[in-house]
Amino acid sequence: MSSPFAYNAKLTECGTKHLAMFLAIREAIAEGTLAPGERLPSTRRLAELYGLSRGSVSLAYEMLTAEGFVQAGIGRGTFVAGYGHKRNDGAASSEEGESPAALPAITDWGRRLLELQAVEASSGDVGTSVPFAAPSPASSDPSILEANARVSFVTEGLSAARFPWQEWKSEVARQWKRIGVYGSRGLENSAGSLSLRKAIAGRLRRERGIPCGEEDIVITSGSMQAIALLAQLLLEEGKTAVVENPCYKGIERAIRATGAGLISQRTDRSGIVPQDWEATLLFVTPTRQFPTGVVLGYERRQELLLWASKRKAFIIEDDYDSDFRWGGRPLEPLKALDKEGRVVYVGTFSRSMGTSLRIGFAVVPRELLQPLLLAKKLYDPYPTSLAEQQALAGWMSGGGYDRHMRKTRRLLGKLERKLRECLETNLDGLFTPFPADAGMHVYARWEGTEADYERLIRECAVQGVRWKNGSAYELPSAGRPKTPPSAIFGFAHLTEREIEEGIRRIRRAAEALSLLRDAYREQGGKVHA
Amino acid sequence: MSSPFAYNAKLTECGTKHLAMFLAIREAIAEGTLAPGERLPSTRRLAELYGLSRGSVSLAYEMLTAEGFVQAGIGRGTFVAGYGHKRNDGAASSEEGESPAALPAITDWGRRLLELQAVEASSGDVGTSVPFAAPSPASSDPSILEANARVSFVTEGLSAARFPWQEWKSEVARQWKRIGVYGSRGLENSAGSLSLRKAIAGRLRRERGIPCGEEDIVITSGSMQAIALLAQLLLEEGKTAVVENPCYKGIERAIRATGAGLISQRTDRSGIVPQDWEATLLFVTPTRQFPTGVVLGYERRQELLLWASKRKAFIIEDDYDSDFRWGGRPLEPLKALDKEGRVVYVGTFSRSMGTSLRIGFAVVPRELLQPLLLAKKLYDPYPTSLAEQQALAGWMSGGGYDRHMRKTRRLLGKLERKLRECLETNLDGLFTPFPADAGMHVYARWEGTEADYERLIRECAVQGVRWKNGSAYELPSAGRPKTPPSAIFGFAHLTEREIEEGIRRIRRAAEALSLLRDAYREQGGKVHA
Predict the structure, then answer these.
(1) Using the 8-state DSSP alphabet, how is residue A238 labeled?
(2) Domain HTH gntR-type, which positions (chains A, B) (predicted)?
(3) Does B26 sit within 8 Å of A209, measured CB to CB?
């Protein structure tokens, strides 16, 4: 038998024989050198081969068994376990449908997280975006193969090239230096960087009319931390929350994790349709409904506030991309109209600066401020990313952030116009884009049948273009007809040329499937068979 | 009536009249310009004074009322509320004993957090460190007043001056640049930076004998995030956890927040005393018990693992400062002995690099890996501090981290020897330091009466020296005698000169209180009256 394991390399690394053997065999299994079902050498044989004691080898085998990489049959030897060739990186094992019931030690909370993950994974196929496919024999156009530039409309946030990294990295380095010289005391408390909270409060007062000071603001690591902690503070089994339908999955997850009930409320062209829900918490995106982009009407805003007042409920207003608005001043946020302290306003910088920067914030009513701070401190006793928080504050007060936003708004407005224009002139009739004057994506309803939509998505994957399917954000609404299919075309990471090319490919796919026929006939165009 | 409010300044800032008035009055209340109980001008009068409509003023008053800053009596006018002069920054309101029962909307989880905070705040007086006091008339020594350099032995971690910030800030800036050019894709997944996980795994294999690869590691924002999430996954009402007594408060909080029961287990000079606890989770600090610094004996380590195996329980091994060891190789961590995947090993970089850097990690058994990743993603869907994670990885692989650690270890060893020497030669008999060969503090038992200890602490506050009282980490243990008083002398932020000066002041305080008499007599020294 040759030496199949990188034992000596591991021994050099870790210095302990049984560990080295454990690591070497595990690596061989992970890399497929040892296949599932394969029999391992006997401990005696392996000990001889590598000049080890049988005890060391046995110990390595025991550890492999405990971790599930191998299985020992009594008197039969030791075999590579069936699933051993896959890395257990979380996602993988859930896709295999590993049962949450196999974990007796896990709490109800943990079990709910696992179940949610399993449900999402199983519905993920059509739900999210389709991966690019290899060209099928059926697609004959040779130009597809030469195109190395696939186009993905799946939202990625602002492309890295559109962020002034030189400015940013200098600002961060300056802050680390400052912390190095003076320490971090006086810069922060458990609510986060003081100067950042001041900068945010000033901005919210000026630009959004929200009456707040730095003492109302809690900095979080992205807006999801605020949302999940607030859910945990306000929801539990026996309580109920309302969300818009469609809705960001992270919010649904935060609610379901608590064990609370969930009402998914229909939205129309004026946003969520208010009801007298029997619930204690409402999540809403009034400035720009996610993902449809519709604006919540002023009267509905008042109705939601009345509901919260009557029910003594709270509203979490997620203003996830109000900063990206090129079409005039938005309506006042709920928080600006909130006279009773029933609204928590949540925002984020991860969209304007890229997802590598995890800074969000919440404007919190008095009653919830201390609970939220305590909740945050349970996980983060000290503020996270303090240097980045300070850098952002410095960048905001120095005018850099505003300069970046002005530039970005202009650019996004231009890209959005290009995208709408392309959708209308090239795919007229297939998609109806919803109107919007902000954001980083266009939401568009599919005007054909569901079956045709799925065919188109698959053909587009072959043609090298894809987008996020709107159904990814749909919640089951009992006894209501399914929402028509829709698409989310993100554009903030693309150039105008890429947008054109992407739509051209969708058109090509639609032509190949003869989906454009009727639209063409109306325009007197040539019918594609 | 003169103009008491900064209305015009606020108007310039926010542009909306009622907001400006709301903010201006709130500021006046916060700053004490308007005292509690003071009557506000009538809406008519204020409207005249500032040229506003009465509607705007009424709206501002309504908002102030909703937020609790003012109270309106029917037909009597509007008054500044009694507690309005204090900022509601969380800590303040709890110290006022605000009742959790006043928050009907809060979940059981949130209520437990509030109750814990209330308990900690009420026991905080003697429990933690005493603030420096103003010199009392009784203390007559004029040298106290001239001493501007007060000495605090309260642990602060490594002083900022001992960290190579130039190196670090360049490394962080380099990483931001890299993210700017290439984006962050490929660098990370939900478990954190890939290169950092590799660097940590390599280090743990080499230095701690823990058989792990990057796929076993989850990066967290400090070790508390890992601890709190694991508690939430493994504990709930009806379950029980065991902790060492004394114990880090954050761990106690994480357990109590879940509603689980808590057994606080006595520790002796060999660490926690194993029992057959009816529990499903054990938190333990084997390498260096926190805060006593004692090392858990090898046989006890085996006993704990046997217990976990028998009970199908998990052990969270918090190895919070194993990196700071100047006295030879430590015993193997529990994780290195863990053949059944029952141990989660938790570590942090916040101690070696300062609390401004929030990077911790957990080495997670297979069974808990996916649940922990899902739990983390609920709050942080993307890794936080990615640039810092990458920078740390780069710094580790480039040898910078090891250089820093070698230098720091030498330094800390020297400081610790100095501190022990001073404690023994100057305060002989008052404190008995526990032996240790690692860490950033010395734990010492007080040998006198409790009453004398409290007198000494108070006198030291006057003399300008303080430390953390060991009772801050004591848990109530039913039916067991109270642990003798103790002190935690942190030294990693001090110079040798400061250590000397601090101990000299303690000596002076002890002399002033005649506490040194007996010790002196034994040595044939002069008796101080």
Answers:
(1) T
(2) 15-83
(3) no
CA distances from B266 to B271, B289, B315, B483 (A): 8, 12, 17, 10
When pLDDT is cut at 50, 70 and 90, the band that residue A270 belongs to is very high
- C-alpha distance from B366 to closest chain A C-alpha (Å): 6
A105 domain-assigned:
no
Residue A199 forms part of a structural domain: yes
Best mutation target among A7, A10, A11, A14 (most B Cβ atoms within 10 Å) is: A14
Flag whether pLDDT at B90 surpasses 60: no
In tens, the pLDDT along B184-232 reads 777 777 899 999 999 999 999 988 889 999 999 999 999 999 999 999 9
Reported residue count of chain A is 529
Please tell me whether the interface predicted TM-score (ipTM) of this complex is above 0.90. no
pLDDT of residue A478: 61
Assigned domain for B157 exists: no
Residue in the block written with tokens 């070497």: A24
| Residue of chain B minimizing CA distance to A388 | B385
pLDDT tens-place string over residues A170-222: 999 999 888 877 777 777 778 999 999 999 999 999 888 899 999 999 999 99
CA distances B93 to A239, B98, B116, B118, B199, Å, are: 27, 6, 14, 10, 44
Tell me: do A368 and A426 sit in the same domain. Answer: no
Task: Identify from B86, B170, B378, B380 which residue to disrupt to test chain A contact, counting A C-beta atoms within 10 A and taking the largest count.
Answer: B378
Condensed to tens digits (0 to 9), the pLDDT of residues A48-61 reads 888 888 888 888 88
Could you tell me which chain B residue has the CA closest to the CA of A58? B339
Cβ distance of B109 and A184 shorter than 8 Å: no
Q: How many domains does chain B have?
A: 4
**What domain range includes position B230?**
165-398
Residues of A in contact with B27 (CB under 8 A): 213
**Residues A295 and A205 placed together within one structural domain of the fold:** yes
> Domain boundary at A373, A398, A423, which?
A398
Q: Do A213 and B89 touch (CB under 8 A)?
A: no
- DSSP 8-state assignment for residue B105: T
Instruction: Give the one of A98, A105, A163 whose C-beta lies nearest to B314's C-beta.
Output: A105
Q: Which pTM does this prediction carry?
A: 0.80
Cα–Cα distance measured from residue A497 to residue A298, given in angstroms and rounded to the nearest whole number: 38
Among candidates A439, A423, A422, which has minimal Cα distance to A486?
A423
A394 and A408 inside one domain: no
Calculate how close chain B gets to A507, using CA atoms only, in Å: 29
